[in-house]
Amino acid sequence: MSTPEQESSKELPHKKNDAATKPATQNGTYAPKPILPIKRAKLMSTATSSASSPSQHSPLQTRAASPLILNPPIDSDGLSWPSRGARSRIDQTADQSSQRERRIADAVQVILEELGEDTTREGLVETPERYARAMLYFTKGYEENIRDVIKRAVFEEDHDEMVIVRDIEIYSLCEHHLVPFFGKAHIAYIPNKRVLGLSKLARLAEMYSRRFQVQERLTKQIAMALSEILKPRGVAVVIEATHMCMVSRGVQKTGSSTTTSCMLGCFRDQQKTREEFLTLLGRK
Ligand SMILES: [Zn+2]
To answer: In terms of C-beta distances under 8 Å and separation of at least 24 residues, what long-range contacts does 52-56 make, across chains too?
Structure first.
């Protein structure tokens, strides 16, 4: 179990930068409230603690906070790192499904009104329902599981060369701000007598990205799932993404992107393998 300190130390680097380096007012019309002293103190102490363990907050922290050591369980349902309610979404009846959509739409209505909108004007009349359906789609990954995604696409194959699929488009939602982040995922593995249908790599990325995420965890989840399914000699996942919460708030300007990676097995242990992968990605 993690203590509150550990929890807070998991905050994304860009969140901390936000507080530590940026004044409260921005150039745009939107000026966020100043950070309360108590929160600032908390963020600063997080920053201090990260100084003593520098690996903790780098974008590549998936490597330092080793998933091999932490070894989070992967269940065949694909609900590892689960959300509360994911199970109820999977099991719901059609009736429960429409009730859920109604409740979300009602909540959206409240948000719009609190933001100062007139929800009876033409353009907004059906917006709560539309948004509810859109959000259910953007988070449809909660209703999918590894077993159904993979089906019978694992094959015995005497192939031990690197398999790599590049430029898989991903669209996800930042769980801190509920706004999109999107980009490309690159997935590689070196088989150990088992291979996976190539399209399934993209399906796995899709399943995990259609949930509320932080990019670091998304990267790790894809790698861990693949590792669990195939027991390969190694897995590497790199994700490059643009976060709307960063580029649209003036924290970091348009065009900035975040790269995360997770290397397991021989990608982790052997520099030669890792370099081959990065070369194939065009990064070296
Ligand atoms: Zn965010």
So the answer is: 56/9
Question: Tokens at residue 267, please?
Answer: 């990608």
Q: Which residues surround ligand 1, an ion (CB under 5 A)?
A: 174, 176-177, 245
How far does the centroid of ligand 1 lie from the alpha carbon of residue 256, in Å? 13
May I ask the CATH architecture of the domain 86-143? Orthogonal Bundle (1.10)
CA dihedral of 109, 114, 115, 117, whole degrees rounded to 10: 60
| Active site residues per annotation | 174-177, 215, 243, 245
Distance (Å, whole) CA 137 – CA 128: 14
**Residue 64's pLDDT band (boundaries 50, 70, 90)?**
very low
Token readout for 41 is 């103190």
- Contact present, 240 and 261 (Cβ < 8 Å): no
Average pLDDT (249-266) is: 83
Where do the structural domains in the chain lie, given as residue ranges?
A: 86-143, 154-280
Mean pLDDT check: name the lowest of 103-112, 152-161, 229-238. 152-161
What's the CA-to-centroid distance between 64 and ligand 1, angstroms? 22
What pLDDT sits at residue 236?
Answer: 97
Question: If pLDDT is split at 50, 70 and 90, which confidence band does 109 have?
Answer: very high
What topology is assigned to 154-280 in CATH? GTP Cyclohydrolase I, domain 2 (3.30.1130)
Q: What percent of the chain has pLDDT over 70?
A: 68
